[in-house]
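job 3f2a | input accepted
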Amino acid sequence: MAAILSTETPTVEHSAVPWGAVLATVGAGLVSALQVGKGAIAAPLLQSAFRIDLAMVGWVISVFAILGLVGGIAAGALSARWGDRRILLAGLVATLAGAGLGSQAPSYQVLLFSRVLEGLGFLMTTVAAPAILRQIVPAPRQNFVFALWSCFMPTGMALALLSGPLFASWQQMWLASALATLLALACGLALIPAGSGRDDARSGNLLADTRLIVTSRAAVLLASAMMLYSAMFFAVFSFLPILLMNRMGAGVGLAGVLSAVASIANVGGNLGAGHLLGRGASRPALIGIASTVMGLAAVGIFAFSLPGAAAFALCVLFAGIGGMIPATILSSTPKVVPSAALVAIAVGLVTQGNGLGQVLAPIAIGAAIETYGWSAPAVIVPLLAVLTIAVARAMRGTAIAEA
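job 3f2a | predicted structure (403 res):
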């Protein structure tokens, strides 16, 4: 693996970062991620309220990943056509409508439709936001800002896990998420300046732009790395509460808190990657090293009957070091496209990779555990790590390594 840190001193410019606009953009992503997490923490309440089985609850939770899987590139193309700021704000409106409708849902069918609205809002917001950040943040500060952006998902999920038990009903949880989205929308309108992120519509050939991205070696490698990372992460975290209850005898509430702590560790990895990239770290090296640690940690978690505290510590290590991968990928994506107009489409491709890993991993791991027992992930996750290392090695000599 190449040296982690470059011997060259990164160029430093003293351009000001528009922190109000940056925080409003990151906040939009955070409240979108909150909608994902609330479905998981409210699952038992939804099951009781609508008298539905776990498979039907699974659709409420997984609709976001499915929409990302099938619609990432389309959302990016829409953002390129209509303007990134406009799409981000429209995404927040869709999320607000979905959360408001869901809070009053009289049936499972209405609730599921509201989740589709929230999922579309999530997709639009998270595809458009990186393109906005690329436009408003000076190049020397982009590594840190994109690392900050990559924190939106684990932070939003952790907030949902920690705050969910405080509500008396799932309807209150939905109303609170709607109010948070309304606040994010107001901040976006006030703080993200018109014209940022190509607020005006683009008249280029979207089909040609999309073809350019999906045939770009760098973009495909980044999407592949995100798919494999997502598969590794959700292979462990989809079953973490169950693992904690089995190993540590934790109740549901404690398992949720511990899962949130592990998610927060992922934020530390995100920010750590931003710091290292700002010092000239090799992007392929960060991805490769983090993948190695994730694979080894998974072996310790699943292959050995470790005490509960030791297994949880490895979960925190898994999430913390693993957090360097999405931060590196998300900060690299806007840098490997030839023009700002293509950023949203490239992010859409990476989003589809993320969705594929997020959809397939829980299914595959769940089936493997049912067939072979809890030791099965100790084989599958390291294999995914080896594939991720291979992808990282393939990034050498591409625009990713030079970003």
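job 3f2a | The radius of gyration is 20 Å.
job 3f2a | closed
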